[in-house]
């Protein structure tokens, strides 16, 4: 019998498998995707949010625990477990040496991401390189890996894991780590979670899946039915406004359009609907998917002028370009008169001070609803650009309630040998909102904890077996 079974193939699962193996346990990892698509959403990531009290290699200045906590508190609006959140924050300060040992390299922030140079450590080669490094290390350490191995159900007994069923095979293990992701690729479940809006639309029908197509939420659903304690709102997720031309699945980072804070966002009626300059983009980019989802047709339009060019990471898909604003409105299919009135009102309301996109500057609007709090400059310099955006779901927040030992709970009681990590428990820390890189912080912290605890649980069972013999 295997000591530790890890179900999932992304960052959290790999961290768990590596830690369990390092602790001396035999480990089998089941990845639902084929080898070429291994890694879940982790293959699309690029950085890890890290606490640090002084400059460290690729990280500048300091990013202390309390500031990290306040940043998280701000985006979640308090819908978070402080104990578990602070555990993640502290773990983020100590994991990079271990990551390097397993082949992960880091690089300084590139142009367009310099605002993250203090808070986030970037992976050399991005998430795909990180995933590949972990798989190489796991194979070298003797972790058994199976691809195209989806688990459809578990055997549980009194809150304890007994076995998993994968393609008709029963796989028993002394302990198990669940790290199989959310349900973002399950369109029916997204429909159920979001329901119909007041226009009778199913918003979820217009969502693009920024992450992996393999996260169907099968094991979350199974655990709900098995009586596991659940946490999170099924409609909450890491939801980004991405290019409307992005692929249905696996668009990843490159589908993002990062110029929202430099211009205005309009709905299909040609009206603004939220403060584009509320806060720094890394703290606010993940609210825009939900905001766009709440608009008719689940579509929004980012409008900038040439003054914004060069101040954000260029998107992969070029936007619509025009020499006049009426021409741009027509190209985007927006009502020209309303579009022009909206932009005119915005331009007239701008109070331009010292523009600086790297700080919360004093360029703002007055007498305009909604306001633009920072970086407000008239849209008046041709050529003009427009990007159609749709909600892009990266991962969902509904998951399993856990504790600082990463144990799955049943009726408030922690399981002795069933643990959870990554997106399947992220809702404990992320009740809503997001800030760049924190998903990888959660997955790394709880993956490492879950792997350690699973190995210890397997060892205890082995000791009990020997004692009974």
Automatic annotation (TrEMBL):
Its cofactor is FAD. Gene3D superfamilies: FAD/NAD(P)-binding domain, Succinate dehydrogenase/fumarate reductase flavoprotein, catalytic domain. It comes from the Bacteria. GO terms for molecular function: oxidoreductase activity. InterPro entries: CobZ, FAD-dep_OxRdtase_2_FAD-bd, FAD-oxidoreductase_2, FAD/NAD-bd_sf, Succ_DH/fumarate_Rdtase_cat_sf. Keywords: FAD, Flavoprotein, Oxidoreductase. It holds the Pfam family FAD_binding_2. Residues 3-430 form the FAD-dependent oxidoreductase 2 FAD-binding domain. This is FAD-dependent tricarballylate dehydrogenase TcuA. It comes from Ramlibacter lithotrophicus. The gene is tcuA.
């Amino acid at each position: 019998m295997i000591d530790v079974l890890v179900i999932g193939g992304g960052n959290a699962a790999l961290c768990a498998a590596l830690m369990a193996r390092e602790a001396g346990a035999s480990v089998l990892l089941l990845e639902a995707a084929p080898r070429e698509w291994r890694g879940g959403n982790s293959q699309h990531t690029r950085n890890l949010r890290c606490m640090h009290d002084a400059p460290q290699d690729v990280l500048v200045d300091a990013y202390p625990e309390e500031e990290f906590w306040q940043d998280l508190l701000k985006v979640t609006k308090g819908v978070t477990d402080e104990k578990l959140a602070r555990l993640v924050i502290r773990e983020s300060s100590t994991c990079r040496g271990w990551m390097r040992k397993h082949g992960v390299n880091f690089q300084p922030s590139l142009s367009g991401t310099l605002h993250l140079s203090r808070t986030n450590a970037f992976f050399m080669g991005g998430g795909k390189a990180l995933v590949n490094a972990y798989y190489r290390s796991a194979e070298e350490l003797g972790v058994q890996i199976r691809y195209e191995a989806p688990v459809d159900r578990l055997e549980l007994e009194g809150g304890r894991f007994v076995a998993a069923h994968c393609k008709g095979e029963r796989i028993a293990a002394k302990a198990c780590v669940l790290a199989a992701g959310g349900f973002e690729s399950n369109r029916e479940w997204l429909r159920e979670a979001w329901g119909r809006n007041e226009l009778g639309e199913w918003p979820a029908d217009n969502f693009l899946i920024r992450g992996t197509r393999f996260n169907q939420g099968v094991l979350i659903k199974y655990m709900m039915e098995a009586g596991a304690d659940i946490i999170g709102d099924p409609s909450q997720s890491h939801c980004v406004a991405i290019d409307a031309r992005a692929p249905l699945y696996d668009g990843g980072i490159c589908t993002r359009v990062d110029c929202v804070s430099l211009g205005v966002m309009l709905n299909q009626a040609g009206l603004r609907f939220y403060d584009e300059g509320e806060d720094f983009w890394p703290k606010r980019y993940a609210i825009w998917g939900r905001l766009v989802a709440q608009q008719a047709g689940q579509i929004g339009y980012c409008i900038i002028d040439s003054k914004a060019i060069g101040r954000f990471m260029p998107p992969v898909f070029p936007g619509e370009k025009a020499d006049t604003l009426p021409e741009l409105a027509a190209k985007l299919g927006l009502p020209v008169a309303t579009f022009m009135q909206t932009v005119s009102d915005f331009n007239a309301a701008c109070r331009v001070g010292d523009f600086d996109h790297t700080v919360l500057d004093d360029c703002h609007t007055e007498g305009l609803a909604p306001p633009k709090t920072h970086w407000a400059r008239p849209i008046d310099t041709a050529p003009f650009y427009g990007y159609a955006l749709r909600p892009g779901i990266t991962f969902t927040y509904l998951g399993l309630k856990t504790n600082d030992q990463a144990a799955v709970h049943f009726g408030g009681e922690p399981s002795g040998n069933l643990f959870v990590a990554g997106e399947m428990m992220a809702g404990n820390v992320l009740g809503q909102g997001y800030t760049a890189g924190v998903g990888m912080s959660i997955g790394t912290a709880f993956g490492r904890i879950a792997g350690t605890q699973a190995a210890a649980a397997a060892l205890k069972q082995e000791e009990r077996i020997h004692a009974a013999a």
